[in-house]
Amino acid sequence: MIRTVDAAKVSDTVAKLCVEANFKAPKDVVDALARALRAERSPLGKDILRTLRENIRIAAADKVAMCQDTGMAVVFLEVGQDLHVAGGALAKAVNAGVRKGYAEGYLRKSVVDPLTRANTGDNTPAIIHTEIVPGRLLRITVAPKGFGSENMSAIRMFNPTVSRDQVEEFVVGCVRDAGARPCPPTVVGVGIGGTFEHAALLAKKALLVPLGEKQARADLAAVERSLLAKINALGIGPGGLGGATTALAVRALAHPTHIAGLPVAVNICCHALRHASAVL
Ligand code: SF4
Question: Which of 62, 229, 248, 269 could form a disulfide with 32 if both were Cys (CB 3.0 to 4.6 A apart)?
Answer without folding.
Answer: 248
